[in-house]
Specification:
The complex is a heterodimer of chains A (about 475) and B (about 400). Chain A has about 475 residues and is an alpha/beta fold. Chain A has 19 helices and 9 strands. In chain A, the strands form 3 sheets. In chain A, strands 3-4-5-9-8 form a 5-stranded parallel beta sheet, with helices on both faces. In chain A, strands 1-2 form a two-stranded antiparallel ribbon. A two-stranded antiparallel ribbon of chain A has the order 6-7. In chain B, about 35% of the residues lie in helices and about 15% in strands. Chain B has 13 helices and 14 strands. In chain B, α3 links the parallel β2 and β3. In chain B, the strands form 3 sheets. Chain B has a 7-stranded mixed beta sheet, with helices on both faces. Classes of the chains: A alpha/beta (about 475), B alpha/beta (about 400).
Chain lengths: ~475, ~400
């Protein structure tokens, strides 16, 4: 209201100036810009437009092109509704009404299931191995098997993967053998990493799976760099990088998303939002007041009560940030293998065909502890863990779908579980027996060739070893 | 006379160690004399130093690859920033996987004009402007390098690369090793550093002292247009992650460099002036301060041997050792701070390896352990000045230290 009727009626300028409103000043300035100092001509030009509305004017700052408004309205921190989560199967593995099942035939589905079961088996046995002191460290994927395997199944072998550390299933799908996994965990001489990294820090150049580096989110810019190379070569491939809800807080996440969008790089950012970053729950990772939830949690012994009692929901996750960077994004049920497969397939197509980044937030739950160095019962209830391990198990959910298609049976299950267990234990025993890497591999690969100082250090070390009991170091 | 020579040729005294480029990438001879502005014009050249010069020249000639030193007209005059640009341009033309990533490197041509004209020639993608996030575009460069590109990452000032320390240390330095040799990172990280003219503490950092400990990295420092171009080319061709340190005050240094292509050896030091009284080890801007001090020293009858170490990691102990064996005295002149700098490590390496040849402790002139102040007088007092070098060398030669 205000001056609008005055303007439309072509009111003399003195009325506008006298009112002292900002709008009139803006009006007169913009008229001066367009029509020079001839105020009368300016007035005429503006007022002669029958459909003139100040609200139609666009701000043309270099930073943004936006419509002008006279209503001061802050943008609320939360949308009215959380971004909906795409799923195809319900919690019992039944296709929801109106679902569009992706093209997953029985052989693909069974292969996916095999991989999930092998992953689960490997995780449980190697976790126990660490507890028994046979390896020094382990980290499981429990609860995220469907996310791992289904996302990997939607990619091609030319897509380059930059993992965080909880994506062993992706590597397993690509063909890393149980022996190769075990060799790395036991840091023996047969491992591709030559015993240089902690357990589970796998890497395979052959399978386009880049060696895991412990610091969080450093792989995100790497993926953008790789996508930049793919874009230059116009390859039919994209870069894919995984990270958790915690990793999304790192500066590297922000810059990688920003770069990828600005550069228009073909990269998929897959966020495994599993609810915890070691002990930090998601509601403390991004916005959200924890105290009320904690109170509710403490007051109740039933996990169902806890789930409903959500006075203060965490901010709406990672998916909403996509728009902030100008990136296509989607939220998907990470425990629904079919939904993950479909979403990642579509995202990959977009990334490769249009050379654009896509952010996929896969909602899931970290059933296991963060790692063998963590005891998560310190910060969450046993009931909560048990609930997600049993009722919400993504592997079981997928199995139910397979069974509903008559692609899987109880006998198949028994046979697979038994075989997987045997294979994993055998791989473990073999790997444990192998020698550790020799001293000659201590100094190699620091550079492309051995520089003098390292040759000297090796010579000194060998001299020390030769003068000392054999227990000090192997050959 | 400043003769930029190669490592001492075969036949000079007993070699203890093999030369740095044995078994490494083939590099053309670095035996081209510095011409133009860098010549030390001593009023009276001692007979000794003249003889040394001619023997050094002969040594160079023996290598057989040096261009004709008497025709000073060959080659072209160039400023240091342009020499860097020339090297970069030649490598980008030669190898399509070479690309540059950094802030304002594209159409702006780089804050110090090192990438001027490259975006027009090679396109926006190969000379990529990035948003401001050093850690991330360094990470991007690492990811691109791991997947087949040869990236040159420019830090607008070396000090900003502190933000990229995580990527440089944990990823560039480590991933070749931790992946068991599966992934290599042929990245070059470069930019201007060192103490400038009143740029303030944050823009006057000596990153070579912070990064020198990181395993897996190679570090070189250029100081003349000639070695700037040669080291740039060598760094790009290397499969290791290389940090190339440029100095913010040396970009407008002029020199005549060869027209024909040359690539220097990353691990090799440069014999700037042969001598017999004392070995002076230096690099980057301090090389020029040392040469300035050498003028005075030569007038007073001293005969310093000046070596620009160039390779900060690893040290060229062959060249350094042979020099110390001859002179028995060593002075390191650096811009790093006293604590934890290149000088500190070099002293340790010299003591470890050449103890028997030393007449006294290895001396070191370094910057003060303070953030670099802005006021010009204070700033000058923070770094080593030529007068200090003269005093120190005199003391050493007179046995007073």
């Amino acid at each position: 209201m205000g001056l609008l009727p005055l303007l439309l009626r072509g009111a003399p300028k003195r009325f506008l100036r006298a009112s002292g409103s900002y709008r009139s000043l803006y009006e007169s300035n913009s008229r001066r810009r367009r029509h020079g100092t001839d105020a009368a001509a300016a007035d005429q030009a503006v007022n002669s437009r029958a459909d003139h509305r100040p609200d139609d004017q666009m701000l043309d700052f270099p930073g943004a092109k936006a419509a002008f408004t006279s209503r001061m309205e802050f943008i609320s921190p939360n949308a009215a509704e959380a971004v909906p989560c795409f799923r195809i199967l319900d919690d019992l593995g039944r296709a929801l009404d109106g679902s569009d099942i992706p093209e997953v035939d029985s052989s693909l589905a069974v292969k996916m299931y095999h991989t999930m079961v092998r992953l689960q088996t490997f995780d449980s046995i190697f976790y126990e191995a660490q507890r028994q002191g046979r390896i020094s460290f382990y980290l499981t994927n429990i609860g995220e098997e469907a996310l791992n395997v289904a996302s990997a199944a939607a990619l091609t072998k030319d897509d380059v993967v930059f993992p965080q550390y909880r994506e062993h299933g992706v590597l397993m799908w690509r063909g890393f053998t149980l022996d190769e996994f075990a060799n790395q965990c036991f840091s023996n001489e047969a491992g591709h990493g030559k015993g240089r990294q902690m357990p589970i820090h796998y890497g395979s150049e052959k399978l386009n799976y880049f060696t895991i580096s412990s610091p969080i989110a450093t792989q995100l810019p790497h993926a953008v760099g790789a996508a930049y190379g793919l874009k230059m070569d116009r390859k039919n491939a994209c870069a894919v990088t995984y990270f958790g809800d915690g990793g999304s807080s790192e500066g590297d996440f922000h810059a990688a998303c920003n770069f990828a969008a600005v550069l228009e790089a073909p990269v998929l950012f897959v966020c495994r939002n599993n609810g915890y970053a070691i002990s930090t729950p998601a509601c403390e990772q991004y916005k959200g007041k924890h105290s009320i939830q904690l109170l509710a949690f403490v007051l109740t012994t039933s996990q169902y009560f806890f789930l409903f009692l959500n006075f203060d929901a965490p901010g709406d996750g990672i998916v909403v940030r996509g728009r902030g960077y100008g990136m296509t994004s989607i939220r998907v049920d990470g425990n629904d293998a079919l939904a993950v497969f479909k979403a990642v397939s579509a995202a990959r197509k977009l990334a490769v065909e249009q050379s654009k980044p896509v952010l996929i937030e896969a909602m899931t739950y970290r059933v296991g502890h963060h790692s063998t160095s963590d005891d998560s019962t310190k910060y969450r209830s046993g009931e909560e863990i048990a609930h997600w391990r049993s009722v919400r198990d993504p592997v079981l959910r997928f199995r139910r779908w397979l069974e509903s298609n008559a692609w899987w049976s109880v006998e198949d299950e028994k046979e697979l579980r038994g075989a997987a267990r045997k294979e994993v234990i055998s791989a473990m025993n073999q790997a444990e027996k192998k020698n550790k890497p020799p001293l000659s591999e201590l100094f190699t690969d620091v550079y492309d060739t051995l520089p003098r100082n390292l040759l000297e250090q090796e010579a000194t070390l060998r001299d020390t070893v030769s003068k000392n009991p054999p227990s000090l170091a192997p050959h | 006379m400043a003769a930029a020579g190669a490592a001492l040729a075969p036949g000079i005294e007993n070699r203890l160690l093999s030369p740095p480029n044995a078994g490494r990438i083939r590099c053309s001879s670095s035996a081209v004399p510095a011409r133009g502005a860098l010549v030390v014009r001593g009023a009276a050249l001692s007979e000794e130093s003249r003889k040394n010069r001619s023997s050094a020249l002969k040594a160079v000639a023996v290598k057989g690859e040096a261009p004709n030193l008497t025709t000073a007209k060959s080659g072209h005059e160039i400023l240091l920033f342009d020499a860097l640009r020339e090297g970069l341009e030649e490598e980008m033309a030669r190898d399509p996987t070479v690309c540059v990533i950094g802030e304002d490197v594209g159409h702006y041509g780089g804050s110090y004009k090192v990438t001027k004209g490259l975006a027009e020639k090679f396109g926006d993608l190969r000379v990529l402007d990035t948003p401001i996030c050093e850690n991330s575009f360094t990470g991007m460069g690492i990811g691109a390098a791991m997947t087949g590109l040869r990236t040159v990452v420019e830090g607008m000032n070396m000090g900003f690369l502190l933000l990229a320390y995580n990527q440089i240390s944990n990823n560039a330095g480590m991933l070749h090793y931790t992946s068991g040799g599966q992934f290599k990172i042929p990245i070059v990280i470069r930019g201007p550093g060192g103490v400038g003219k009143q740029l303030g503490a944050e823009h006057s950092q000596r990153l070579e002292s912070y990064f020198q400990s990181v395993p897996g990295l190679q570090m070189v420092a250029c100081s003349t247009p000639y070695n700037a171009k040669g080291l740039m080319k060598a760094a790009i061709r290397s499969d290791n992650p290389v940090i190339l340190y440029e100095h913010v005050l040396l970009y407008n240094l002029k020199e005549r460099i060869p027209d024909e292509e040359y690539v220097l050896c990353l691990e090799e030091a440069e014999l700037v002036r042969p001598g017999k009284d004392v070995t002076i080890l230096t690099y980057s801007r301090m090389r020029h301060f040392v040469l300035q001090a050498a003028k005075t020293l030569v007038e007073r009858g001293y005969d310093p041997e000046i070596i620009d170490i160039r390779s900060l990691k690893p040290f060229d102990l062959f060249t350094i050792g042979n020099s110390i064996k001859k002179t028995h005295k060593v002075l390191i002149v650096e811009e790093c701070m006293r604590t934890g700098g290149i000088g500190a490590s070099l002293r340790a390496a010299i003591v470890d390896n050449f103890w028997d040849f030393l007449d006294g402790r290895p001396e070191c002139l370094s910057s003060q352990d303070v953030p670099t102040p802005y006021a010009a007088t204070l700033e000058d007092a923070t770094v080593v000045q030529p007068a200090q070098i003269v005093v120190k060398v005199e003391q050493m030669c007179q046995g007073l230290v």
